[in-house]
Amino acid sequence: MLKMWSGRFTKGTDERMDDFHSSIHFDQRLYKQDLAGSRAHVRMLAACGIISETEKEQILSGLAKVEQALEAGKLSLHAGLEDIHMAVEHYLTAEIGEVGKKLHTARSRNDQVATDLRLYLREVARQVQDRLVQLSRVLIDRAEAESETLMPGYTHLQPAQPITLGHHLLAYFEMFYRDLTRVEDCLERANYSPLGAGALAGVTYPIDRELTAQLLGFTAPMANSLDAVSDRDFVIEFLAALSIIMVHLSRFCEELIIWSNPAFGFVELDDAYSTGSSIMPQKKNPDVPELVRGKAGRVFGDLMAILTVVKGIPLAYNKDLQEDKEAFFDAVDTVLACLEIFIPLLSTLKFNREKMRAACNEGYLNATDVADYLAKKGLPFRDAHEIVGKVVRYAIDHGLRLEELSLSQWQEFSPLFEPDILETVQIEACVAARNSLGGTAPAQVRAAVKRSRELLDKFSIK
């Protein structure tokens, strides 16, 4: 078919070139955004007297018919059409005739695609936020239910100090809430209109860029036409935010994978979100957490792909930028799918409180509390640390927990140990004592639950 830009050329493109050059097989998902931008553009053209009101109505009517045909799957989106922008214009002109060719007055595909991508980002970012809110609400509910459930806290994956499961879960709420606000910040910077920037230098028509920005819900037009068409930092920033979401999901999944191992036995995944083995009949595999963990690398790769595309291209538009879309779309699809499956996975987890509490008896989790006990008696903490280290060595050698030492055994190491040490080293007492702001004590967990609900209630998704 004859290209809309073929006037300067003496021959048509090779069929292989059409396939290689075309982006319509993936950018067709932008058709709604492209139609929205075209409607705003044609309204602005009429308002500025560049086309007539009659022509505006003809074009708007034609765009509506093209949209209906696209949604019904009645239009062929083949490689010869190049991209969704040319496809819309081609079918519009076929529908309403020569007046359809006026749609492209005072714009370029360069500002079109930048506009489409910003509109698309705005839509999918809200979807990501919606799922993050859903996930956060499940986390808060589960944390509240486990505000008094004791478990080991770890550093270096070694037993460190006793904590509550509710406190542990709320740590992920904080991460996902930052993700929410990070996406919001990205949206604020992305919500500026490139439309009217033309190919790179602006246009010669008396257009009203403020009007198109307003019609499309943008904050304002972009200030520099070169920047408007050539940068993709808004895509990079959004994919960076998506990558951080995947970091948080992957870390959570790693813990679920470890905890579901019978050696830990802290959690059991619901059968609906697990699989078996084709050879080992006893197996129950945590496939969902493993897949989410694996897909994190895929999203990181999408981010790296776009960073690499953009890093070496001079101003303004270059065809390299066509490579932004597949990675962008893939990252969005992947993150949304991971959030979609992780929400019900989390809501159906079965925590084994007994095993978590029993694990607190291993690893001398209360040793720091003993050092704090001595420090409160006036002993320098470093000296207290040394004494408690010797107590732990003694307990290990005799196969005892610190809770099993008698008062006389304690006093062999320091006369500062008094009868209240026997209560101080109880795991429940250790957890309850960590009642500072942000701590793991049940009272602090309940306060954090209340604060977390208030944060989400104030966060509005537009």
What is the number of helices? 19
Sheet with the most strands, sense and barrel status: 2 strands, antiparallel
What is the β-strand count?
Answer: 6
Distance between the termini: 43 Å
- The class by helix and strand makeup works out as mainly alpha
Query: What value does the Rg take, in angstroms?
Result: 30 Å
Give a structural overview.
This protein is 61% helix and 5% strand. Strand 3 (192-193), helix 8 (209-215) and strand 4 form a beta-alpha-beta unit. Helix 7 packs parallel to helix 19 and helix 11 (287-311) runs antiparallel to helix 12. A two-stranded antiparallel sheet has the order 1-2. It has a two-stranded parallel ribbon with strand order 3-4. It has helices at residues 15-21, 24-27, 31-47, 53-71, 84-96, 109-145, 165-190, 209-215, 225-230, 233-260, 287-311, 324-347, 353-359, 367-376, 381-397, 407-411, 421-424, 427-433, 442-458; strands at residues 150-155, 158-164, 192-193, 220-221, 267-268, 350-351. The chain is mainly alpha-helical and 462 residues long. It folds into three domains: 14-105, Fumarase C, Chain B, domain 1 (Orthogonal Bundle), CATH 1.10.275; 110-205 and 216-353, Fumarase C, Chain A, domain 2, CATH 1.20.200; 359-454, Fumarase/aspartase (C-terminal domain) (Ribonucleotide Reductase Protein R1, domain 1, Orthogonal Bundle). The protein contains 19 helices and six strands.
